[in-house]
Amino acid sequence: MPGPRHPRREPRSPEHPGSSEKMARHFPLPLEEVAHQAVGLQTCLNPGLWLDHFTEWEERRGELKRAEASDKRQRIPRSFNFPELCQLLSAYRNRWDRMLDALRTQNYIVQKFTLRAASRVIVGLGAESVLETSIRLHRIYGFPIIPGSALKGVTKEGKNESDPVFVDIFGKSPPESQAGKVIFFDAIPANPANLTLELDVMNPHYAPYYQGVAPPADYHNPVPVFFLTIGPGSEFLFAVASREKHLAERAREWLIEALTEIGIGAKTVAGYGLWERW
To answer: Does the keyword Transport apply (predicted)?
Structure first.
């Protein structure tokens, strides 16, 4: 049986554990785990672990309470330009490239390209999370990714579903079921040197009104909701593949058009989620 919870306090900076700027951090851990976790908590560079597992707490009126979400997001590492992370991302990209090479040997036509975020991008804002908002990060390594399912979905927007090319690319739903002939791959970071996470905020002023308990009024207090985004200038690799060359090329054209004109993820109507060539 685990022992009693103990508020573990660890110093750590917002950007890197080796920085001279320190902040007190509290983690409720079993007593027998405190000594073992000291090194790991000081050196962890995985934003996914900080968001999903290292939930901070603070002492208020003699009790442990969860720390403010804004504090937690401000303190996680938001740059990936560290030797450890550069090596990790490079190895992951190599495996991603080898996967595409393997498909080429099976007579797939692979269309690979790179785009740069023209604005802040937030994918997975409403996903399940221990906090109010979330962001889609690689489950193991913690860097941001864009799921192929999301890319496929945004590519379909505004298209004529009766178009034979559309049907060949995306398939058909029942009762006339038909599998699509194009694979949309997860987009991954292309360059850790310019990959960043940026903190943003929504500030709803009429929370009781949105909750349906009161009419909107000027005396309501704003309730800031902090969330993380992929920073502008971050470069990502995208890829689609098909055994039919014209379908792979058309899917690539439609995907680039969707990303540069519509955007992907949350808050696209506010200008988020747009990409650009350079």
So the answer is: no
Residues 109 and 194 both lie in one domain? yes
Report, as an integer, the average pLDDT of 264-275: 95
Based on the fold, state whether residues 186 and 232 are members of the same structural domain: yes
Mean pLDDT of the 118-141 span: 85
**Which candidate, 8, 46, 5, 3, places its Cα nearest to that of 27?**
8
Q: Which domain covers residue 225, as residue numbers?
A: 83-276
Given a cut of 90, whether residue 11 has pLDDT beyond it is: no
**136 and 238 in one domain?**
yes
pTM: 0.79
Q: What is the residue type of 165? A: V
